[in-house]
Design a protein that fits this description.
The protein is of the alpha/beta class. A hairpin with a 2-residue loop joins strand 18 and strand 19. Keywords: Hydrolase, Metal-binding, Multifunctional enzyme, Nucleotide-binding, Signal.
Length: 657
C-alpha cells in the first residue's frame, strides 16, 4: 500500500521545554514499582493556526490562546514524569489570518515549512491527525504543508482509491503509525513498548469542502474505518492504541456518516485511549454532564480514558496511564484524565494567565507572525460604501448588510447539491457594536475605500460559527417578532417617546435579509425580554413579503445564522437546535473574510428591506454616537433629525413616524 502524503519519521524527543524548573513527580511516577511505568499522553486540538498569543482580527495580544502558551504546559508535564508523548488532534492549518496568509499569499512553494508545523516541530510532537479544516485550502496545499512535519500524521478514513474492504483502501495519508519507545519503570529499568496511533476525520468534509475534494477523495464512516483498521494495527504487535479522533462526543449509537462519533468509536475493541476534538469543548468537564456513555467527571467514554482540549490552545489534554509489564507486553492498571487550561477568569470575568509563552515556539515562527501582522493591516479588498453601525437599531444598516451578504453567499455554496437546494435562503444578522453599555464610541466606523482583515473584528465581534436552519414562514415572522422586542411600545399622536428598550441587547436584534417587512410600533411586543410568548395577539411585523408576494406561513425557508442563535441563544422561534440543517466548520468572521477576498470590492450599502410603519403624530427619540452626524444623509428610509445631546456623551436624534 502506498500513500501519496506519507511522512518521514523523526527521533523521539523526550526533553521538556528549555528553561522550565523541575517540579514534583506525578503520583504514578512516584509510586511505580519494578515492571510498572507511568506514561503521559498529551493532546492539543483545534489550534486553528493560533501559534502566538495574538488576536489578529483585533490586532492585539491576548492571554487566552496560542500554542506558545500551551507549550509551557507541555514542558511542565514532561518534567513531572519520565515517559511522555504529545499528539495533535487536527484543525491546525486554518482558522485565523496567519493560516489565510500562508495559503493565499505566501504559499508553500519550494522547501517552505508551514508556521504551525514549525511550532509543532520545535515542541517535539510525536504524531497527529487531520481535522476537517485541513482541507479548506485544497489537497495540494495540504500535502505541501504536511511534508514539513517531523512526526507521523495519520488518518484512516480519507480515501484516494477504495478497496474491496476499508482495510484495503489507499488512503491520503497513512491510516495509522506504530511508535516504538522505551519506557522507564519505577526501578529505573527500561522496557520496549509499541504504541499505535490511528486517526479519523468527520465524513462531512465532502460537503464542507466539496469544491476541493469531489472527484479526488472519498470518506469512509469513522466507525466503519476503525472496525477495519484497528485489528490490522493490533496485528502489528502494539501494546496500546490511541485513537486521534477529530470528532466530538455525540450520540451513543453509531449512525452512518456520523460527525461526532467518539462514543461508538470508544466501544471498538482494541482502542485504549480516545483523544477527541472538533466541538471546541472541554472534556472532562461539565459540558458533558448527563451524557449517556460518558463520565464527565472521570474523563472516560465507554470506560476508556478520553480527553478534549478546548480550542485555539486554550487547554492541553492529559491522559496519565499507570502501565504494568505482563510478559512481553503492557496493560493499563489505572488512569487519570484532565484538561489543563492556560488561563482562568476571576469572579468578574477578568482573564488571569496561568503560563507565559515559551520563547522557542515564538522564535520559530517570528517571521510569519510579523508577516501576518503586515497582512491584516493592509487592504485585502475595498468597500464602495462606509461600514458604520450608528443607525443599526433604527434602519437597515451597512455593517449588518455585509454580514448578511457574506452568510447568504456561503450557505448557498454549502447547500448546493443537497436536499435543501432550491429553498429560499434568508440571512439573519444583528449589530454587535451599537453603543448602549459600550458607550458613545462603541460603534463600527470604517470609511469607504480600502478594507483590511482586522476591520472584520469591527463587523463581527464574536468567534461564532456559521449555521443554517430550515424554518417555516410562520417561524420567520415570529423570529422577527422576537427581534422587534428591541423597541418600546409607541403611542400614536405623542411626541418624543423613547424608542429603544434599554434592557434589550443589540446582538438579539436580528435583521433578516431576503424578505421585506415593516415594524408596527403601536403594537405590544409579542415576546418578553427572555423570549417567552407574552401576547399571542400582538403583531408588530406587518407586510412580510418575499419577491413582492406575502410570505406563506407554511412555506419553507433556509436562514443563515450562527451557532449561538441556531441552538437557542436569545430564545428565537425556529431556532432551538432542532431546525439546524447545516453546521459549518467556519467562523462567521472567516466567512466574511472569504467573501471580501472573493468579491474584491464589496458593496455593503443597506438595501432598505425593513422600516417602521407610519404612526400619525408620533415622534421618537434614540441615542447614538456623535460620529453618526457624518452619515445622516445616508439614512433615506427615515424622517430623522438631530435632537441635541444625550447623557454620557451620546447624540440624540428624533424620528418622525
Amino acid at each position: 500500500m502506498t500513500h501519496p502524503l506519507a511522512l518521514s519519521r523523526r527521533g523521539f524527543l523526550t526533553s521538556g521545554v528549555a528553561g522550565l524548573a523541575l517540579v514534583a513527580l506525578h503520583p504514578y511516577s512516584a509510586r511505580a514499582e519494578a515492571g510498572q511505568a507511568h506514561l503521559r499522553i498529551m493532546e492539543t486540538t483545534d489550534l486553528h493556526a493560533h501559534v502566538w498569543p495574538y488576536d489578529y482580527y483585533a490586532d492585539t495580544a491576548t492571554d487566552t490562546l496560542g500554542l506558545a502558551r500551551t507549550a509551557a504546559l507541555v514542558g511542565a508535564v514532561r518534567a513531572e514524569a519520565t515517559n511522555a508523548l504529545l499528539f495533535d488532534n487536527g484543525d491546525f492549518l486554518q482558522g485565523n489570518p496567519m493560516g489565510d496568509f500562508i495559503a493565499y499569499e505566501r504559499g508553500m512553494d519550494g522547501d517552505a515549512t508551514h508556521p504551525v508545523i514549525q511550532g509543532m516541530n520545535a515542541l517535539g510532537y510525536d504524531g497527529g491527525t487531520l481535522g476537517n479544516h485541513e482541507f479548506n485550502y485544497g489537497l495540494e496545499f495540504l500535502g505541501a504543508s504536511l511534508a514539513g512535519a517531523g512526526y507521523p500524521v495519520v488518518c484512516a478514513n480519507v480515501v484516494t482509491e477504495a478497496g474491496a474492504t476499508p482495510d484495503q483502501d489507499r488512503t491520503l495519508v497513512p491510516p495509522y503509525a506504530v511508535i516504538d519507545r522505551d519506557l522507564t519503570d519505577g526501578a529505573g529499568a527500561t522496557h520496549p513498548i509499541r504504541i499505535g496511533i490511528i486517526g479519523f476525520v468527520p465524513p462531512q468534509i465532502m460537503q464542507w469542502d466539496r469544491a476541493h475534494l469531489e472527484g479526488q477523495v472519498t470518506v469512509r464512516d469513522i466507525v466503519e474505518a476503525a472496525q477495519a483498521w484497528v485489528p490490522k494495527l493490533r496485528a502489528e504487535g502494539v501494546d496500546l492504541v490511541v485513537a486521534l479522533a477529530h470528532c466530538g462526543i455525540g450520540g451513543q449509537t453509531a449512525e452512518p456518516g456520523m460527525e461526532n462519533a467518539a462514543i461508538p468509536l470508544a466501544a471498538i475493541d482494541g482502542i485504549d485511549v480516545i483523544l477527541t476534538g472538533h466541538s471546541h469543548s472541554v472534556f472532562p468537564g461539565p459540558d458533558y454532564d448527563g451524557v449517556a456513555g460518558v463520565d464527565a467527571a472521570a474523563g472516560t467514554i465507554g470506560g476508556k480514558p478520553a480527553v478534549m482540549a478546548g480550542f485555539w490552545g486554550s487547554h492541553m489534554g492529559l491522559v496519565d496511564l499507570l502501565l504494568e509489564r505482563q510478559g512481553d507486553g503492557w496493560t493499563i492498571v489505572s488512569h487519570q484524565v484532565e484538561a489543563r487550561p492556560i488561563y482562568q477568569r476571576d469572579d468578574e470575568g477578568v482573564v488571569i494567565p496561568l503560563v507565559e509563552s515559551v520563547p522557542a515556539i515564538e522564535e520559530a515562527t517570528a517571521t510569519e507572525h510579523q508577516q501576518t501582522l503586515d497582512y491584516v493591516r493592509r487592504p485585502v479588498g475595498q468597500t464602495s460604501a462606509a461600514l458604520y453601525s450608528y443607525f443599526a437599531m433604527v434602519a437597515d444598516d451597512p455593517s449588518v448588510q455585509i454580514v448578511s451578504n457574506a452568510q447568504s453567499w456561503y450557505i448557498a455554496q454549502m447547500l448546493a447539491g443537497t436536499e435543501h437546494e432550491g429553498l429560499p435562503i434568508l440571512s439573519a444578522a444583528a449589530p454587535f457594536k451599537a453603543g448602549g453599555r459600550g458607550g458613545p464610541d462603541y460603534f463600527t466606523d470604517v470609511p469607504p475605500g480600502d478594507i483590511a482583515i482586522r476591520n472584520v473584528a469591527d463587523l463581527y465581534l464574536y468567534p461564532n460559527t456559521i449555521r443554517a436552519v430550515r424554518v417555516t414562514g410562520a417561524q420567520v415572522k415570529d423570529w422577527l417578532e422576537r427581534s422587534a422586542g428591541a423597541f418600546n411600545r409607541i403611542e400614536p399622536g405623542q411626541a418624543d417617546q423613547m424608542l429603544l428598550n434599554p434592557d434589550f441587547r443589540s446582538y438579539n436584534f436580528d435583521v433578516i435579509d431576503g424578505v421585506t417587512y415593516r415594524i408596527d410600533l403601536s403594537q405590544p411586543s409579542r415576546f418578553d425580554a427572555d423570549g417567552a410568548l407574552a401576547d399571542a395577539e400582538a403583531n408588530r411585523i406587518v407586510d412580510l413579503a418575499i419577491d413582492g408576494q406575502p410570505v406563506d406561513p407554511a412555506a419553507e425557508f433556509i436562514i443563515a445564522t450562527n451557532n449561538y442563535r441556531a441552538t437557542g441563544g436569545g430564545s428565537f422561534p425556529g431556532a432551538d437546535g432542532s431546525t439546524v440543517v447545516f453546521e459549518g466548520p467556519d467562523t462567521n468572521r472567516d466567512v466574511i473574510v472569504r467573501y471580501i477576498l472573493d468579491q474584491g470590492t464589496i458593496n455593503p450599502s443597506a438595501d432598505g428591506n425593513w422600516s417602521f410603519a407610519a404612526l400619525d403624530g408620533a415622534t421618537v427619540l434614540f441615542d447614538t454616537g456623535p460620529g453618526a452626524a457624518a452619515y445622516l444623509q445616508d439614512v433615506t428610509t427615515l424622517a430623522i433629525e438631530p435632537a441635541g445631546d444625550a447623557p454620557e456623551g451620546f447624540a440624540r436624534y428624533r424620528i418622525t413616524l
